Amino acid sequence: MQAEIVETLEALTKEKLPKQSALKEEAKTALLTVKEYQGSDKDFPAFAKENKAIIQPLVTAIQELQLKHKPFLLCFAALHRIITRGAVHAEFVKPILVEFEKSIETYPEVRIRVLQMLLPFVQDPLLVRGEDLLYLFKIGILLVETSRNQSVNTSRVIICHVVAHAFERPSTLKDESRQVAIQDCKNILSIAVDSAQRNNVFGLDLLTACIVDGEQGFREKEILMMLGDIIEFLLSKLECTQLPIISRVLNMLHCIAENIQRDSAQLIWILVSVSKAGMSEQSRVLREEFFYQVSYKTIWAAAQKDRSICQILFAVPAKATVGQLPPIKSLYTQQINRTAIPTETGYQVALRFLKLFSLPGEMEKEVYRQGCDQELLSVYIKHLSRAVREIEDLSTLEHACHAAQMLTEALGSAERVVSQLGLNECLNQILSLEYWLAEKNFGLFYGLASEATLRHMEKVTIWREFFDLAAKMQMQDPEQETWGQLTHNLKEFPKTDLKNALREACCSSTVRSTFYASLFLGLVYRVSELPEEFEQIIKKVFPIGETKDHPEETAERITSFFEVYFVCRLPEATHQIVLGQTKELANSLSAQSPDALVMKEILSSLSLGVRSAGESLQGSWTEIYHILAMAIKQPCLASTVFDIIQIITDRLLPFLPKECLLETARILSVCCTGIKDSNVSLFALGCVKELTEYILGSEHSTKSCLEVWHVSLCLLCTMAYDVRDDIRDSAIAQVFESIYLCRDKKLLEWQPLTEIFLRRLLGAAVYAKDKEIYSGEHDEGFAESPESDEQRSPEGVCPCGNIGACVLEGYETAAPENSKRSADSAKNLILAVSALMLEHFDEIKKVSGFSSLWALYGRILVRFSKDPEMASCVVSSLKHCLVSISIHKYWKRFFVTVSEICTAAKQKQTLSETLIQMLKLSHEKLGSTPTQGETDVFFAATTSILRHNQIGRHQGLTPLEFEAVCSLEEEGRACSSRMRVSTLLAWLRLTQDASSQFSSNFVVYCMSSLSHELQQAVFATELHREAVSILLSYHAMKKTLPSCWARARKTLQQLFVLEAGRDVQTQVIWASREILGLAPSDRIDATTSVQNKNKNILRAISENCNYVQVIKEEEKEMCEYLYFLETLSETAKMATLFEIYHLVVEIWSTSLLNSLSTLYLAATRVICSLIGQRKELAPLAMDWSRNLLHEYNAEIRLHKIEYSRFQREAVSYLLDRILEDQISTVDPAQLHHGLTLCVNAEDRAISRRAVKILQKALLQKSSQ
Q: H or E element: which one contains 320?
């Protein structure tokens, strides 16, 4: 603060001021005074207040300076800090306020600053008072009137705070200061009333601030005397139509009635006047809000003098609905700027009802403080009862509803008030009202009625109504347990109160027998106290003749009775009597009730008894199993029987007699296969597990243990055929756990396991996957096994004695659930059987029937291998076999199995690699000299497994390709050449399959090996043709496999050369037509042979966007092949030579049609070479030469068509060869006519060559 004042004073000393102004000198003096201060900043305000010279220049500055002067605002800020810290002297108040008023009118920019300093001015009650306070008050009003937007609200708040401070002063000051403060309050109040009388909203707000915040001021008699005129003025405003004015008026009347006025007459005047005011229809809602806010103490004070006030405040409409009682979130009368009224339906009704509900709570407080007018309380209870019964649709009320909460609280408070005053009759009336409400809305009011009844049990005289209510509630909403709660509460009643309650209960005609049963069992330990009353109750529990007429009710009573009976932990003798009688009852009911409804409830009760008191039954188990054996025959009771068996197997097996163990297994077999419920079957398997583990670990004899174990194992094998996934998988897991457990206990017998149970499990694997009952007897090759006649045991020989549900034909389940789960089950079965057999291979192979089992196992593996999903399982099983097999005959069968799997399976590449390695290993195990058939099978299987080859990113051989190559090089040494060639051709055929993928290196290897094999031996023409056909097929794939086609073309050329040197039929012509893009010879006719487009060119155009470059490459390749044919013709036989010549002439003829100029020239050169080297072609040579010259002369002279450069070069090339005597088969004399025409041709080069040939011919003729 000191620094800010120094800064402001320094600014004043630097400001340019008129010469007559003393401001600068005052500022310098003040600056020196401030700088001399050495104290703390905290004590500086007191220092400034004592030294008026410090504040003087700041006041003078705001008087002389204008807003344009920079120090002006600095002085305002400094004054703000001084006033806020209470450092201003009283003599400066008036000048400051005057300047504030001027600044507000002159400079709107400083209004906020002035507004901020008004409230600190009045903090000190002795600083601003009297005229100064009124002046400050008027400044505040001026700010409200001249401010805009948000500043208006801020100004209103500040001026209201000023009023509050002013009305607090009379209670804090004394003597003269107090009188001044009272006069200030009266002046302010007069200003507010005058402003309000002009219908000024701000005036009403100002008057509201005086009344609401001036409660302490109105305690002064001088101020209170003005209240009558204010009330009269406010009541006169109620008939206006402006909602904001009515809202403010009612708010002030409420504040006067609650906080200021203590005169009962004036309170009555206010309440009656408001109720009778001629208000508009819309404004009546505001009046109801006003009455809603009137407190109990105000009502009390007014009702003491005039009872009619109760009618004004408590009267309700004739009818009201729940929809008319919405929650009142906030009262609109509490809003200052009231511009609208609520539009909710029944809002006025809601206010009246909720006011009525809120009064008991306030009454209860007054009773504890100063008592309560009983007459007024009686009047209120009548109004409350009448109002509650006028409410419709009470059932729709909810706990969260505001009206429901208030009604509940009102009833509770009223009950406590009348109880404290000892009004028993009124108490029972309130309880009766609560019972009536509970019937309308049990969930909301039953708890209230119940608690009140129990709280005042010694005063209650309407017990029958309460028992009826509890029973009705129990029937409508059993989850509330109202009857059970009532019974529980009665346990603690004194004897007299309990006797009164039970006598009233027995008089009811609406309580059901089941409720009486619950009441009897709940109070069973108090029967000795009240024998007569409980005798009446038990007659209500079991009325005679109801069993036949009402079986449902009888069943219900049996259930409820036995539930409590077994919980009572009665002695063993009682159990024998009750259970013996229960057995007789069951015998009679089974014949009497076809639906067995009552019997089912007996079983359910028996289940509860076994669970709770099974350890103490002992000799009663025989009766229980008799009932169970009888009930299991009825499908509707099977599930209940299983529940009892489940309890027994869980923890009561040690308590069973020996004869009951096997009966338990028999009942479990029926439960597993006879009950369609998946949960029952699944839990039944769990019971089988408990029984198996118990019997194998018990001290019973070995015979007894194996009898029960064989029944369990047979049942588990049967359940492995179940199509329900969870049941099947659980049975599969259990059966092997049981086998290994029996092995660990040294009780396992391999003979029945091999002959019966393992075969069933393998069949179950097939059934799980394919839903087919499979035993393998009808498979091809079954008779090959030396022990194929060893089938499973005949019917009836199964060790279970037909108790374990071993007859599959009679076992049906639901539809299949999940094919993937079924496949997984099949995998688990195969792997588990495989692991069991191979782990104990040395033991199990000695058992009769194992060979047949081994063969069946192999056939199932082959069957499963055809499914890709089963591939990994099959391969895993085969891996186990590689480690365990030690006998040759089993290796042979293993090799056959692996080869069949390789042939039939559709494996992934990783599994295929494993299979081919197993195939090689098993082939090696057959011995050093395998038979030809075994070798054929080996290579056929290798070829089949190659179908699943997949190439990777690398360019080398894949693992499958590598294994195949190694097999051919190693195992193929002992094979014939034809076998190796056939294998290579089969592999090459695989590489052309669209579904297979092979590396280029593998294809090249196969071609190289094929070329080598064909050169080493002579093979039939059909084999050669097949090889050529396969190699030629790569011509169509040369775009995608260029390296393969390059190798194929080389191999083809080697084969053609090889055929040319042998006396065999060659394949060169039809293969060359394909390579050169010509149509097959059998598809050519006289009309279309020349016009046909070249297939290579057509393919290049259709497959490539940039086909020009591709055509050039095709043309180049065809030219190179023509040169190969030229070379081949040197050693070709006569027939082949003529075919080659015609082929070249055809490609020469079609090349121009396809615009293949380079190929045209190449064909021309090759033709010239052929006719020049082989004299056998002389007739053909003359015809071709004559035709060439004739075509040239005809096109040039007759059709006036210019030959292309390439055509001219062809003619020139022929004439040059004739001149050089390289074509001895052509006689120039026979070409005399064509040459003569060439002499006169436009092309001078051709003319010169023709002249030379003619001259040479003439010389030769003249020399002769």
A: strand 320-321
